[in-house]
Design a protein that fits this description.
The protein is mainly β. Helix content is 12%, strand content 50%. The chain has one helix and nine strands. Strands 1, 2, 3, 6, 7, 8 and 9 form a seven-stranded antiparallel sheet that branches. A two-stranded antiparallel sheet has the order 4-5. Strand 1 and strand 2 form a beta hairpin. The chain is flat, with a radius of gyration of 21 Å.
């Protein structure tokens, strides 16, 4: 019985995480015609290690990614929204690799500055003005970022893939 209870908790947690991962922007609601939502945001991540397949932490040369993003959601009609998400500035880097014994630089650090991969979407409100709403979206991921920058080709501000996603909110 305890094992079944644990499994149910795991499945419910996974389902909630999957649902919440797609819940951004206005969710299922569409904008009024001529109205919009505009956002400028930043995020960054810096790491000097990674987890191995055994769960231990291995050190890395410090690397990072910094993004400045623009998000626009605009009501074309009361049921149709145009949505644009663009990392307008993206910086990928890794620091110098320094010898732990001699203190000499083994590999010089590098950085690239670029625009990142963008998303363009169209959202259509299927059910509006009810106690609950339903919309569908077509999202296109545009590979306009750098997928293999730097002398080693390991710095990225994009994945080099054209992506597409149909979703319901």
């Amino acid at each position: 019985m305890e094992n079944l209870k644990t499994k149910i908790h795991v499945y419910v947690t996974i389902a909630l995480l999957m649902v919440s991962s797609f819940s951004y922007g206005g969710g299922g609601w569409t904008m009024e015609k001529g109205k919009g939502y505009y956002q400028l945001s930043q995020f960054w991540t810096i790491s000097d290690g990674h987890y191995t397949s055994t769960g231990k932490i291995d050190p890395n040369v410090t690397n990072g990614l910094f993004n400045t993003n623009a998000y626009v959601e605009y009501g074309i009609t009361d049921r149709i929204d145009g949505i644009l998400f663009v990392p307008i500035f993206s910086r990928a880097l890794y620091n110098n690799l320094i010898s732990g014994t001699t203190g000499d630089t083994i590999q010089a650090g590098e950085a690239i500055n670029s625009i990142g991969d963008a998303n363009i979407s169209v959202k259509y409100g299927l059910i509006t003005n009810k106690p609950w709403v339903l919309s569908t979206s077509l999202l296109l991921g545009l590979p306009i970022g750098e997928s293999s920058g730097g002398s080693l080709g390991i710095l990225q501000t994009g994945d080099g893939e054209f992506n597409q996603l149909i979703r319901f909110d």
